[in-house]
Amino acid sequence: MFVVLSLLLSCAILALLVYLSKQRQSAQQQHYDVLVVLREILYLCRQHRRISHHALIHSQTDNDELNHLQDLMIEKSNHLIANAPFESKAMYRILQLKLKSLIKEWQYRSVARNQMIHGKTIRHCLFLMDEVALAWLIESDREDLSDEYHLQWQQVLDSMEVLTQLRISIQDVNSYEGTQRIKYHSDKMRRKMNQLSLISPLSIASPSCTDALLKLGEVCDASEIKLSNEELYQLTTELSLSISQVYDQMLSDLTETLYLPLPKPAINS
């Protein structure tokens, strides 16, 4: 009788371990899938910003490509809403509202306004990705990884804040005070990018980022700013891309440690 009870208890414990393992695997897959889709939406937002900026500056619109990007953004946000747990659906509905606002009547915006709206949506995607990563870290009980991630995320966040201040100051480039603000924020931005190079040296050493840092240095050191408004906005777009690439490398390292590495982006930035 004792042997039978022992066998039954062993089978029950084994069944419980298998169940918990499947639950853990399911939770990991869900976190991973959400990060992949949010990452794709972020890339789509960047592409939409690049093409719509070009259209606003040069009065040339590729409607087919823009419509395709817009359809993909809504499709992927619908996927997030449909597959998210009930308590998370609201935050993905908010994301979809931001995407629809980004898409709506962009043709009638100034470049500065278009830049601001796209930038807010891109930052919103990054914050959502951060929330998912933090929840995953808490569930995984990896305090060592959590501390490192927090420290690196704070550096990314600080860089985004400085970049926002630099973008805001561009609209006053034609005044002396505006020029001084641009130079001040450019110098802060240069220092922030140097700090990010400690997190992801390859991202900051990329040709596009190296070129952006050279331009940033010229803005800081020149007696007068020779770049046009459009060129300054383009410079901030290149810096924003580099910051996102640093965060992308952080996420990829994190997911590889916890589960699987992120796939290579299927959508070009």
Q: Which descriptors apply to this entry?
A:
single chain; 269 residues; mainly alpha; Four Helix Bundle (Hemerythrin (Met), subunit A); 9 helices; 0% strand
Counting structural domains, the number is 2
Q: Tally the beta strands.
A: 0
- The CATH architecture category of the largest domain equals Up-down Bundle
Number of helices: 9
CATH topology label of the largest domain: Four Helix Bundle (Hemerythrin (Met), subunit A)
Protein name: Nitrate/nitrite sensing protein domain-containing protein
Organism: Vibrio olivae
Blueprint of the fold:
Layout: H1 2-58, H2 63-83, H3 89-103, H4 111-140, H5 143-170, H6 176-196, H7 201-204, H8 207-221, H9 229-258
Helix pairs in contact: 1-2, 1-4, 1-9, 2-3, 3-4, 4-5, 4-9, 5-6, 5-9, 6-8, 8-9
What would you say this structure looks like, in words?
The protein has 269 residues and is an all-alpha fold. The protein folds into 2 domains: 112 residues, Four Helix Bundle (Hemerythrin (Met), subunit A); 121 residues, Up-down Bundle (Four Helix Bundle (Hemerythrin (Met), subunit A)), CATH 1.20.120. 82% of the residues lie in helices and 0% in strands. The chain has 9 helices and no strands. Helix 6 packs antiparallel against helix 8. The chain is globular. About 2% of the residues have low confidence.
